[in-house]
Amino acid sequence: LRPVRKNKYDNDDYIWMGHILNGMSDTLFDMYQNSGSAKELWEKLEARYMMKGATSKKFLFSRFNKYKMVDSRHAMEQMHELEHILNNYKQHNMHMDEIIIVSLTTNKLPLSLKDFEISLKHCKEYISLEQLGNHLCLEEEYHKEDNTKELSIQEKVDVMEKGTYQISP
What we know:
Number of helices: 8
Shape: elongated
Strand content: under 5%
Largest sheet: none
Order of helices and strands: HHHHHHHH
Radius of gyration: 26 Å
């Protein structure tokens, strides 16, 4: 019986090692492919990338705290990045009240959404992070429509200033 168990263990270890290595970039694969076992590989990766303790929590808090949305990127894309950071909070058993998260997130909105930020702060009812995302998505669509209308109006003004009085549809 012993040889059968040993072979099964070796086979399982080989399969798990392959699964772990398969999910890595080429650079990481090259660094870790010579690990002795799947368990050893996992422990190396955990020690290197799964920072434990206060240091990783400080890093996560700092990442969320310093994050600032910019006008040059889609607001929803940036909202998803913030949600990813907040999901890392859960993985490290860090808890923050959702009211505080929503308030801090509204402070991170880009300058183009300043009016939206102010309206959210004056809103008397509580909104969840999910609702904030929904409102942000709608607000971003309104801004796109407004910008399109402004460009269209500006094009008509440019045509009139040049002395061409054609009415464009």
